[in-house]
Amino acid sequence: MSSQDIPEEKLPTVQDEHGAAVALADEENPFADPGMPPHEHRIQDIDERAAKRSERAVALMFTLSMLATVGFIASYVTIPVDKSIFVFPIGHISALNFALGLTLGIALFAIGAGAVHWARTLMSDEELVDERHAIEASPETKAKVLADFKQGAKESAIGRRKLIRNTMFGALALFPLSGVVLLRDLGPLPEDKLRHTLWKKGKLLINQNTNEPMRPSDIAVGSLTFAQPEGLEEHDHDYQTQIAKAALMLVRIQPDNIKSKQTLEWSHQGILAYSKICTHVGCPISLYEQQTHHVLCPCHQSTFDLSDGGQVIFGPAGHPLPQLRIGVNDEGYLEALDDFEEPVGPAFWERG
Length: 352
Fold this sequence. Notes:
Layout: E1 13-15, E2 21-23, H1 43-46, H2 48-78, E3 84-87, E4 91-94, H3 95-121, H4 139-156, H5 162-174, H6 177-182, E5 205-207, E6 224-229, H7 239-246, E7 248-252, H8 261-265, E8 271-275, E9 287-289, E10 294-296, E11 303-305, E12 311-314, E13 323-324, E14 326-328, E15 334-336
Antiparallel strand pairs: 1-2, 3-4, 5-6, 6-7, 7-8, 8-13, 9-10, 10-11, 11-12, 14-15
């Protein structure tokens, strides 16, 4: 039989130092509630010098967190991504990952350790018994919670322990900067890079298959040829980034079959230069219908009329293919007369 099976009025009781009834264990009730143990004061409660030492220890941990956060940011900015170091017994690891993990771990640990040491040595440690109450909060309960909060704030000495308070606020304010700095991995701001390509006045049109500059005679009527700007090489570190904007397709149409006046003016002897990048989601266009002068994107079947300014005649593409103005130089090679007048590829939110 447990104490729960015995009526309360039959439990043997005595009174503790606060006058509260405490059940005593006997043969019929071996697991009676012994009540709260007597409160023992800590050294910090009776010795202000010990309290000051604890205060300095807490402040030191919060300060360490601030320094670790600064170290995290400095590591992220200064350590190269491809640098590796040897750490025993792990082996060779990324220096950046090691530094970020170490500083972030120290920053978090120091805040937690400081808070725990503060609570265990300086905040009130008296255990209080509070009877269970209904879920709904009565006005008396709200008043009690507010009073308890004020009492807790008073006992924490946060107003009097200014060193702890200020360093804690500093640690908590600096630590979120670690997450803000990580936003840099979303990539650099595009600025106006999406609006411009490598094409400019005087840039030769280089055949992507032969890697040679082209003359008008190299392009036959009805043919489709792909070109890239002069000076762009496949081994360049930013080749993929640049060719994704500068890829060009050339077609030759009889001038009488060109519908748009501007399209004709921007061509040379019927040779038209258009961006190869589809304006829907950026797929490379490569399917050419010789009889209709239409090009088809293989991804989502957007269709453009090259004889009419690259206008969209079918599919989900939102705007025409940008045309590049071309001519010939003194040596008879095809060259660009300017960059595209509008951004190539899909639309983007700041295109305007």
